[in-house]
């Protein structure tokens, strides 16, 4: 009989692991010399990485060297202190280590009995997170892979509650089915539309409620839209309110929106994927929305709590609603729950699920509530400093200021003279073009990475601050890069 081919020996594993950790350490020791991104020739990249399947196993040192040399430089360095694109997502060191142990154990947290401590720990971290963001901690909750999917699952539950016929059994095409409607602001994330596509509700039934001058959903227009739909026999399924919108990080006014929802018995889903954890920051407490008003809530620790992708928390205070929609138990997955335990597979369509709770547990325990609060507060302070620089500079504007550390900047040079941007189409296009070029040049330089959006003022440079490694000198350097690039482009 031949020997089992087997895995690396545990000794080799430790040796290679040491090499890897050393490489990661070196990366972060020198991270400010690493370009955040670099221009990339797609054809060259594809041909550089393309190769035949290796017939024989290769030495790990060689694989690691190739990875560092041929792959990593053409990633965008999302975990870089000068990465400010989209919403800065950040993986902290404890989170990174937790991912390693999670992979080593490779447990499946689908049923309680398939890994009791994984489910028990998931419940603990869900309760911690609920406490941090001010959501009732006895609510149903589940860790899912991304805020888009969390919203999809919440809206599936809302749909099944709202429609008269049994959607689980009959599908959407029942003969007596009324037209379902979802309401969200004109600023809401595209995941709401994708959910409507996926759930058979349809894009035309996503009603985009106009936002006010601060990019917040207008509750009066929401009330009108719902009343109009009810009068014509349509069925309001849910309102999706956003706390921390994608373009400018505005927050919809939850109290009046919840009041409209309650009046008509409509489900309120709160998408606080970005904004949720700033509830930890004391100086913001007076101005933040009350997340507990949502029937369901999504928050994204992968965005702002230093937990590596993917790590989204979905809550639903209408206990039982998620399981009414998603619980379906074939014989081979049955288990007894005499002891009051539960199966996480019942809370979403996902069966096999990783042990996401461990990285939450390690990150939250490593920094503590106070440490997380201090880090988010620091990001808020750096963003405020950046806004001040723009406001104090004759050539820069800071439109749609947010309370969160997302800064929208717009370069409007004095030298454009007296052109009135509100009426002069041509001047406005030129300024938009200028700002688009700044984004391109900054990102091509490798010194920082920013993204953009188009708001009522026009094209804006979006700067998201929130990497755990970012310092004052990083944000000062960022401002210097922006102003220098703007002058060069002009
Ligand atoms: C990031 C974000 C999403 C999408 O999150 P994913 O985890 O990437 O699916 C949805 N809504 C808002 C408000 C967001 O900020």
Structure overview:
- It is a single chain.
- This protein has about 500 residues and is α/β, with parallel strands linked by helices.
- The chain contains 15 helices and 11 strands.
- The protein has helices at about 10-30, 40-50, 60-70, 95-105, 115-135, 145-160, 165-170, 190-200, 220-230, 255-265, 300-305, 320-325, 355-390, 425-445, 470-490, and strands at about 140-145, 180-185, 205-210, 235-240, 265-270, 295-300, 310-315, 395, 405-410, 450-455, 460-465.
- The strands form 2 sheets. It has a 7-stranded mixed β-sheet, with helices on both faces. Strands 8-9-11-10 form a 4-stranded antiparallel β-sheet.
- A hairpin with a 2-residue loop joins strand 10 (about 450-455) and strand 11 (about 460-465).
- Helix 4 packs antiparallel against helix 13 (about 355-390) and helix 13 crosses helix 15.
- The radius of gyration is 25 Å and the shape is globular.
- It starts with 9 loop residues before the first helix and ends with a helix.
- The model has no long low-confidence stretch (mean pLDDT about 95).
- It binds pyridoxal-5'-phosphate (PLP).
- The site of pyridoxal-5'-phosphate (PLP) has 14 residues, from helix 6.
